[in-house]
Amino acid sequence: MTLPLEHLRVLDLTQAMAGPFCTMILGDMGADVVKIEPPSGEVSRRAMGFKGKGDDTAAFIAINRNKRSLTLDLKSEEGRELFYALAREADVICENFRPGVTSRLGIDPDTIHGINPRLVYASISGFGQTGPHSQRAGFDLIAQGMAGVMSITGEPGGDPVKSGIPLSDLGAGLYCAFGVLSAVMVAERTGRGQAIDTSLFEAALSLGIWETAELWTTGRVPQPTGSAHRLTAPYQAYRTSDGYLTVGGNNHKLWVSFCEAIGRHDFIEDERFATNEDRMANRQELEHEVEAVLQKRTTEEWMEVMGEHGVPAGPIYNYAEVFEDPHTIERGMLEQYEHPVEGTVNTLGLPLKLSETPGAIRRHAPLVGEHTAEVLREVGVDDERLAALRQSEVV
What we know:
The chain is of the alpha/beta class and 395 residues long. It folds into two domains: 9-206 and 329-391, Crotonobetainyl-coa:carnitine coa-transferase, domain 1 (Rossmann fold), CATH 3.40.50; 235-315, formyl-coa transferase, domain 3 (2-Layer Sandwich). The protein has helices spanning 18-28, 44-47, 58-63, 77-89, 101-105, 109-115, 140-146, 167-190, 200-206, 209-218, 252-261, 266-269, 276-281, 283-294, 299-308, 319-322, 326-330, 372-377, 383-391, and strands at residues 9-13, 32-37, 67-71, 92-95, 120-125, 195-199, 235-239, 244-248, 313-315, 334-339, 343-348. Helix 1 (18-28) crosses helix 8 (167-190). The mean pLDDT is 96. This is CoA transferase. GO terms for molecular function: CoA-transferase activity. It comes from Egibacter rhizosphaerae.
């Protein structure tokens, strides 16, 4: 099977979440991702999350599939020379060190482009390579706070709440993958690579589409709205007799259909709810009136009713329930592979489906240095030199 990115060799110097997510996406689409780790292994192998049968955490295993692992001491001269040899044959380097670290190691974009001018060099950091905050340590939580995300998440009047998923990390990883592919296309046309600079802060900030629209149009500082939309109603979660139902009645046609579904035709002409602007101005009253009706039946019963009336609606699942839904399985979002230590491992499937050249899960998350010999032989390191490198702890 042909994979869309199988022609790309990626040197992966990333760790934790944002960078490994980027390189996993590239690997899922077929890129040969060589994860270059310090001799002790990447930090998230030991420091983050639950452990199964082996030493690696579930967090590491979840985000490092489709990669080969090479251990390399980049602080040693011989380690750097080996890295340069790898860079000569590579198409992409991804790193998420704090700005300045790659210069101190001698593997910065200028140095690498002197070795391989066509290489794409991608950097993810907390706040970017420039600017007054560039040297600050960056974590998802910090970026969410400074990008405004925590100020609009949660219930009105409540304490600041972070997004349940690390959207700063994951957003930066997605942007970086998009940047890599964009720059690779340019390199294939021109023969020249370039540096990519993205950050957790900018990823989180760039996702604030509705919030910045509200700020710049009205002058109001956006506030948290719970599950409700800040621009349209009804568009939120409502209580039922046994849980919650999410409803999207965010245009006039859907609003009328929703009123018909819940048997409240009078809402259509009610001056409090006649237009979207009216519903937004009286959203709390609308919520009270709607829930008084919805709490008379179960979520499942209302799902059937909403379906009959063409109203977008859904239950709120916990993660165990997500994987009990046959749609999740039918869409291939639960896959399994065999790991040499953990045995059969569940993993999230690929959310991107290509009709002719789909991605694939081809490799388990690697053990520390599992592919060191294999990768170094590809750049001409023989067994005698490999033994010497191991003896000197360069690899």
